[in-house]
Amino acid sequence: MPQQAKEREGFLKAIFQPRKICAARTAAILFFWTLLALASPVAQTVKFKHVVVILQENRTPDNIFGSNPNFEPGVDIATSGLNSKGETIPLIPMPLETCFDLNHSHTAYVIAYDNGKMDGADKNTTQPGKGCVVPPLPQYRYVDNSTGLVQPYFDIAKQYGWANRMYQTNQGPSYSAHQFFIAGTSAPTTYSKLFVSGNPVKEPAGCTATPDNTVAVIDPDGDETTNPPIYPCFEHPTLPDVLNDAGITWKYYSQWTDSIWNAPNSIRHMCEAKENKNGGLDCTGRDFMNNDVIGSHRVLKDIKECKLAQVSWVTPTHEESDHPRMTDGRGPAWVASVVNALGANPACAGTGEEYWKDTAIFITWDDWGGFYDHVKPLRQGQPNGWGRGFTYGFRVPLLVVSAYTPAGFVENAEHDSGSLLKFIETNFSPPGKPLGLIGPGIYADAYDDNSLQAFFTLKSPRPFKPIHVNFYFRFFLLEQEDRGRRVFEEMARCGMGCWF
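Request: output the structure for the sequence above.
Response:
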C-alpha cells in the first residue's frame, strides 16, 4: 500500500467510530462525500469565470450591522444579549475605530460560548492601547452608523445577498482562520488530529519566522496545553494545490509577506523558505512568487488592467481591516471600492470580457473579534470526529455580490469557510466532476452541501449599480508614497466630505 494511502487509512481509523474500519466502509464514506459534492439544493444559473473572496477582520453580524437590525426583511440581528448573570444587556453604539481590542483567542471563545448558553461575553478581557479608556461592557456593542461610515456594507447587503448563518470555522483568532480560508484546516500536517489554534507569539509569522517563534496547537479535547507549541510552518494540501492541478489561476493579495493574514506564507511547499543575505528567511517557492501578491491595493490595478485571476483572496491593510485598535474606519469604503472596480470595469481589450457579468464576490470577516453575537455556533466538530475541540465558531457576516444575485436576497442555510472552498471547487469543475476535495477529503470543504449556489439564480445579469462611498476609491490605487503627497491636494479640491 502506498505511504499516502496508509496515512489516510490510519487517519480514518483514528477519527471514525467504531474504531475498526474496513475497505468497504472507507469506500462508502468516500462515495457519500462524492454525492455531497455533486448535490446542490438550488440550481446555479451561471458558471463564473472569476471568484473573489474579500476578507475583513473581527466582527459579528450583531456588531457591524447592529445599527439597523431590520435593514432588510428576514435578517437576524439582535439588539440585546445575555451576560453571565442571566441579565439582558442592550447593545449600544460604539465607533468603528477604537483604542482597544477584545480577546478573541480560543479561551475567549470557550468563555463566551459557556457550554452553549451563549452568556459569557461579559467575562471576556480587553487589550487596550496606551492611555485608552475602555467603555463599560465593550463586548455588547454595535458599530455606530450615524455618519454613514458603515453604510456601504448595508448597501451591498440590500442590493445583493446576505447570509444569516455564516460561521467562523475555527474557534480562535486570525492566524488559524486564514489557514481555513485557503485549505479548510489549520492542521500542522495532512493527517494530524491537532489544529493550530492561536496567533504566533510574534511576527514575522509563517515559514519565514525566526527559529524561536511558536504557535499553540489544540487537540480534539479542546486542550491547548498538553501539546507543546510548534514552529508556525505547516505542510498539508490546500485549495491552491487543487487549482494548480486543474490549471486554474489564483492570487492571494496581502499587504505584508510575513503577516498572520498572509496564509500561503505558512505552508511549507508554497513558501519554500530560503536564507537571504541578511541571515533571515524569504519565501522563494513558485506558488508564492507567482501568486502571492504583496500590496492589497494591487487587486484594483489588476482589475483595471484586466489581469484578474480566476480565484482571488483579498486581505486588507490594518487601516482598512475593521480590526479594533487597527482600523481607521476606511474598511467599508475599501470593500465598496473593490466591488465598484469589478462592477464598473469596462470590457477588457482583446477579449471583450466584462468582469461584472463573470464574477462572484464573497465578502466575509475572518473571526468574531470577541464581540457578542446571539446565534449559537453551528456545531462542535463533525459527527465523524473531524474538527472536534476547535470547530465551529461564532457567526461572522457574509455578503454575496454578483450580476445574478437577486436584490435583498436573505438566505438561511448554514455556511463556513468550507462553503467558499466548496463553491470554488464546484464552480470551476467540469460537468459532474468536482475539482476537490482538498487533500484527504476530510477538511472543512468536505461537509458543505454547496448551498451558496442559492445566491445565483437570476437567468440574466443585472446591470451594475455602484455602491456609494464618501471616500474616493481612486485613493486606494495610489502607491503609498504618492498617497501622502496627494491626499491633502485631493481634500482641498473636494472637501472633507469626500474622505470621511
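Residues 44-65+146-455 form a domain with the Alkaline Phosphatase, subunit A fold (CATH 3.40.720.10).
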